[in-house]
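Table S5 (text form). Sequence records supplied for joint modeling of the two-component complex.
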Amino acid sequence: MAISEQEYGNIIRYLLDTLEQRQASNIAEEINELIRRGTTSTIADSRDLVRKNIKQSEVGKTQTRPLSSKEAFEKILEYLKKLILDIPAYEQQIKKTFGSNVVWEYDQGESNELRRLSEGFSVNALSYDKDDFDKANLEFDNLINYISDNGDLRRS
Amino acid sequence: MATYDDLKNSIDALLGLATTGRQLQLNASAREKAFEVYVLALIAEAINRASGRYSIIGIRTGPNPNPVVFRAAPGAIYSISQDFAYLDCTLNGKQFEIHVDVEFEGSSGATHEMDVSLIDKGRADRARNGQRNPRNLLFVAECKFYSSSIPSIGVARALVGLASDFHLEIGVAFVSNDATINLKNFLSKKNRPEPFPDLSPLDKEAEERFKNRIESWLRRWASV
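The corresponding structure-token record, covering 380 residues in total, follows.
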């Protein structure tokens, strides 16, 4: 039995609730924005015209439509991978080139508005830890496998 | 066969990791800044590959600053309010600098903020001494770390406009961790900024493609 749209919707709600509980409401907001934005596709050729029953004049235009719950969950995983795997991997490259003591600071001559937008931070804030990185990688592999085999999601 | 609980358990395991908790607290600006310096680090490797040399300079303390300070927001090349770092480079007799988040003045007189920029050393010195934004830019990399929104064609159009305000001898690169197909199509045309829309430390092929292209641009420019 294929995973239903409702079940994907439930998983997304669970993920958003968990993020809120872990004081990551900014991430939950970004995920909501990602879902709201929907998906775009460009009408490319005559096969699209036949399949989608649309006019020749529409070719080349970009259409936006809402995401299905499954598509939304897939996009959320892509998004979380960038935050949880890419960013700590930046830390490795930055430390390799510039050493361990790297910081970002705002120019003291800048306006208060710019300071507010860009707080200083250290490269250690990117939080690379090999064990956690490997565990996170494994969990992403698991999640992608669960949804790519269109698996039978039964409540156990 | 996967169950609902398998999925839920994976999410719990992922979000329960101590480092994940810290990464999710990082704001969008910090992610962008980290991406820019990651790109700078790859360019530094490309300089070495081209048989060039670079050293890290702090504008106040000189070579090998500790800590290495990058800008958390765009600013003037001559600002000494922090010990901002840049790369001082040589390649086949050419001397140049690479900066992150520095402002330039285009031929139109407009001020542009460049994510990663390459400038002739003499011109950079003159801009610092004269307390003004430099006008001559050799190369720029526009860097976009995208998480919840994927870069669309408007970003690429803006970069084309920015590039037209300078005479860029080496090249222009659009570097991001994702992009829409529309943007990729727009940048696929000749004489547009070269797109690197999939740069990630987890994708070694994409990293190699970027470093090889930078190396080849530098070699051609410096006749190496």
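Note: Chain A touches chain B through 81 residues (CB under 8 Å).
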